[in-house]
Amino acid sequence: MLLENKVAIVTGGSRGIGYATVEAFLQEGATVVLCASRQETADQAVAKLKEADANAKVEGIFPNLSDYAAVQAAFDEVVNKYGKIDILVNNAGVSESTPFDKYTDETFDKVMDLNVRGVFNCSKAVSDHMIAAGSGVILNTSSMVSQYGQPAGIAYPTSKFAVNGFTLSLARELGPKGIRVNAVAPGITYTDMMRQVPKEVIDPMIAQIPLRRMGQPEDIANAFVFLASDKASYISGEVLHVDGLARS
User: Is 190 a catalytic residue?
Assistant: First the structure.
């Protein structure tokens, strides 16, 4: 198994890509602590995972990712319990599509606080533990819109462009300390949000994808598994696009 004896934290792990990543990590032998926004959603996700496998080594926590002190306290508890954190997946995020002329400070700050400050807080909270261990993997969820933008909702692509810069810079800084930092940039992925989009909207989008299908959460989770594993031991500072597109 690729992640045997590893301890991983996955933020935004109660649904969608995060939940699929938790499942994949468990299947590869990891102990996983999933972060959710509320105790209820964390408990529900853990119960569902244990229903599928009663022996699953998983638990849920729900710190406010925009509050560094809360994140640090929660992550310190993970280290106290398991002795280490080998992998952090910064997956929690929020998207929105407000037109620019309707934007407010609150709308912009809500996206940036979770999508950027949350990544910063979680990475900072694990970095001391990983530096002390001389190893570790930090993985961030970017997006295809960090490269292409989107028609409305300016804060989301802005936040993901920031995640790319954070990933590349932190990889350069922490690499000498034995820590790899990478990102995965999903394309159109069949999550709960996409299930609400009408077929007449989705079909033209799929027509632009050479593989002629949307991604599944498992497609993104598999990329996280690879980057978290020793199979990717010489890969750092990369933003891996998992979007079915062909690039020159």
Answer: no
Integer Cα distance of 191 and 9 in angstroms: 21
How far is the C-alpha of 119 from the C-alpha of 161, rounded, in Å? 13
Neighbours of 198 (CB within 10 A): 7
pLDDT tens-digit series, residues 129-170: 999 999 999 999 999 988 888 888 899 999 999 999 999 999
Tokens of 218: 């498992």
HSE of 69 in the Cβ direction (CA atoms, 13 Å)?
A: 0
Q: Enumerate the β-bridge partners of residue 184.
A: 141, 240
- pTM higher than 0.70, yes or no? yes
Q: What is the 3 state secondary structure string of 105-119?
A: HHHHHHHHHHHHHHH
Given 82, 103, 156, 234, which residue is catalytic?
156
